[in-house]
Amino acid sequence: MRDLKEYDYHALLLNLSTTSLNKAQRRWRIAYAAIYSVRAMLSLVKEIVPGRIYPKSSDASLSLSYTPLESGGDGAKINSMPVSYVPDIDQERLVEIMKGKDLPGIRALGGVEGIAASLRTNATKGIHGNEQEVNRRRDLFGSNTYHKPPPKGLLFFVYDAFKDTTILILLACAALSLGFGIKEHGLKEGWYEGGSIFVAVFLVIVVSALSNFRQERQFDKLSKISNNIKVEVLRDSRRQHISIFDVVVGDVAFLKIGDQIPADGLFLDGHSLQVDESSMTGESDHLEVDHKDNPFLFSGTKIVDGFAQMLVVSVGMSTTWGQTMSSINQDSSERTPLQVRLDTLTSTIGKLGLTVAALVLVVLLVRYFTGNTKKDGKIEYNGSKTPVDTVVNSVVRIVSVAVTIVVVAIPEGLPLAVTLTLAYSMKRMMSDQAMVRKLSACETMGSATVICTDKTGTLTLNEMKVTKFWLGQESIHEDSTQMISSDVLDLLYQGTGLNTTGSVCVSDSGPTPEFSGSPTEKALLSWTVLNLGMNMESVKQRYDVLRVETFNSAKKRSGVLVRRKSDNTVHVHWKGAAEMVLAMCSQYYTSTGSVDLMDSTAKNSIQAIIQGIAASSLRCIAFAHKVSLNNSGLEEDGLTLMGIVGLKDPCRPGVSKAVETCKLAGVAIKMITGDNVFTAKAIAFECGILDHNDKDEEEAVVEGVQFRNYTEEERMQKVEKIRVMARSSPSDKLLMVKCLRLKGHVVAVTGDGTNDAPALKEADIGLSMGIQGTEVAKESSDIVILDDNFTSVATVLKWGRCVYNNIQKFIQFQLTVNVAALVINFIASVSAGEVPLTAVQLLWVNLIMDTLGALALATERPTNELFKRKPVGRTEALITNVMWRNLLVQSLYQIAVLLILQFKGMSIFNVRKEVKDTLIFNTFVLCQVFNEFNAREMEKKNVFKGIHRNRLFVGIIAITIVLQVIMVEFLKKFADTVRLNGWQWGTCIVIASLSWPIGFFTKFIPVSETPFLSYFKNPRSLFKGSRSLSPKKP
What we know:
Elements: H1 9-15, H2 23-48, H3 91-100, H4 103-108, H5 111-118, H6 131-141, H7 154-162, H8 165-190, H9 192-227, E1 230-235, E2 238-243, E3 252-255, E4 264-276, H10 278-281, E5 287-288, E6 296-297, E7 302-314, H11 320-325, H12 337-369, E8 374-375, E9 378-379, H13 388-409, H14 413-431, E10 434-436, H15 439-444, E11 450-453, E12 465-471, E13 474-475, H16 486-497, E14 503-505, E15 514-516, H17 519-531, H18 536-542, E16 543-552, E17 557-564, E18 570-577, H19 578-582, E19 585-589, E20 595-597, H20 600-615, E21 618-628, E22 639-648, H21 655-664, E23 668-672, H22 677-687, H23 697-700, E24 701-703, H24 704-709, H25 712-718, E25 724-726, H26 730-742, E26 747-751, H27 757-762, E27 765-769, H28 775-780, E28 783-785, H29 790-832, H30 839-858, H31 881-909, H32 913-934, H33 951-969, H34 972-975, H35 982-993, H36 995-1002, H37 1014-1017
Parallel strand pairs: 11-23, 11-26, 19-22, 23-25, 24-25, 26-27, 27-28
Antiparallel strand pairs: 1-2, 1-3, 3-7, 4-5, 4-6, 4-7, 8-9, 10-28, 12-13, 12-22, 14-15, 16-17, 17-18, 18-21, 19-20, 21-22
Helix pairs in contact: 7-9, 8-9, 8-13, 9-14, 9-30, 12-13, 12-29, 13-30, 14-29, 14-30, 16-17, 20-22, 21-29, 29-30, 29-31, 30-32, 30-33, 31-32, 31-36, 32-33, 32-35, 32-36
């Protein structure tokens, strides 16, 4: 950037017409002149009226001048962007250059370095990280956020609820009933029936809309959390992790394999960078990005190979991705497999309810028009003598009853229960270090039969430390590093300092430097700097990096080709898995600096050393070197082994207990790792995946190459016995997942790397790591484990089972009410010509069982008892035989009691018809309240265990009882009830409370393992003994 001199006002105005300035620069200067003029006038006011209005401020804030950028070399200063700073580059021009990939436009601005200078960015030290500087850049160039369509409001969901056909029919019935009622009885008395239906329908709509609105807000929150990616940037000469939303123009961002590019930018420095732009262009081919021919990097795309530093030039809505994202809204209407199954169940029950309602409608209409119905002791229909208004009003009342039966029969609460359970579980799982990205994962995780887990970072802490070092065949202790030859030390400095994606920077807090990078890179750099005395900056200044081969999961090594500046010699350095690097070596260094030939004896000896290190649960990394005669590529043979290090990565606390818990729950744990077989076995024993008493240890541990070389038949035969797969590649993990799924297992897989994406997608549940996981892995997964801890995986399993269990509890409760209500109304209408429960009463029951019941049962927290059950297979019936037993017994009891009250209630209690109808309604509601306790446990006899911990359940029961009392005692006209005395209330409670002992003794009845409904599909099975259905193989 050309130097700008300090202008006075007149000089600035003269320069506005300078022909050397382009149009954009002249526009900036005019704007600057206007701002300066205003500031000059304000400063005059301050001089005239000192201290009255304006407090004293620093002159620096009004200064026109700024320090020119000192470019070049490591001593370059980081220049701040003062308030009066005007960029030399028009932001719109930068956006146009990026969109058009305008390489000549970049060159015209002085290349990437020229743009960095114009943006006052020091390429080697970044920008100032103070809040004032970042805010100035945000004000000038915009923030890295996208404008999204506003979330759906409450009114949208209210409107959506009105679209329900049954609700519309009920509203029509209510309107007709209201009109005829007012005409017949006057406004004071005639509005009750129609108005009551309106109020009841309104309550159903409001509760439904509020539930859906709450779910939408929950998804919106989760979306913000999942989009909040951490980005590594350079500020104040330090690498630091910030939110993607805090990235500003001028930032220097670090990119590595698997990262999502946070904003539009230009390539500053790096090696072998390849980008996947398929999310933006649809092209599957990876694009090579470099400094010369293609420096363009676009937000939203992914890094698939190499590493780089990027200069951010456009953020937020100025980026191509930002404009695309602004038109996309998060869809929270995803249907999970369980919801789809429940939709089918709801549809089936709804059709049955519709059939019953149609029969009731026909029976009631026939009875009415044949003169078999009476009102106040008089026949309701007398042919032509009955007024048309009365006939229409009666028909409307009959239709509304039939429609209400449909409303009660259709269990709208089932989808609502799933929604509530999933929303509640997702919220709780966040606090348990698991972020759900896909709703279906919540329920599917409860069915998992196998978990394939990584070792590093999941079972272990991923806190590496070098604890062993071998030079050739000699073990070098921490206190004897001074014995190592200076030539060998120099080669080790090259091997760790240049062949790395990590960095070393000076710490403000003390003399110990700060290390950044992956845990392995940090451990190696820390060891070389603190133990071997390496000066990172000195090493970098003495060598030029010619070529880099980044770590590859197939080769399991990384390499670098460097040229020494002092003598122009070219050196190859490789670093990676010890046995892989050893296979490339034909010689090895000793501590004195001499080179010995690696014959078979020496090779066997070094292999034994590697196995010994690995058997101690240490990760083995080897270094190799070669002086190269060409600078075109990295040679992979004839190298000299420099040394082997053992890195300790201790197991996470509590991981062995979590593994044991999963095993007790019937879930098999398989460890898939890139480490060698000895390290893998040692960690597997430590975690409890392998047992020293195992007789089939040989079959339980395999290497990736061995597994992939099996025939298909052998793989299918052995896959279930394998518990540890060492030296595996991502393709081996994918192969294992496919085999397990073919065997009928529900498979959960953990992964953190970009190459794990296929296995994460293939699995039934993909679990990515929140800390070490790449953005590609997270995007491919269903659940993100925020703390990278296997214990959290076990917690997710528990929550998954809880979701499924809660849904089953609610289905049992819901179907009990459905069966009882349908049978009672049908029998009563056919035999007596009337239904005991009015439309308003049925809507109230509907509200209790659908909404309040779902809220009470769907929010039960998981217990460790869930781990004592076997996993739910792919083909297991949603409604189990245990559930059928419980709901049929309770339904039969309720039907029997209510039919006795319907036909004999008046004589038994010596009461009039209105009191009898109120007793039926009150008993029916209280039966549901008591049965809600029974639904808490499907098999256990003690249904009150842990009830004090579920305050929501207790609160809902209390609210239901209070509202029922209000309905019966105070809303007589509204609910068509009469007041009950204490004795009558006591009778209702006693009858309803018998649900508890009945539920208790019901659980002693044994059930067959053959699904109940299968008897109707295959009648012969009724006469066969109880047997278990073997799971189907897909």
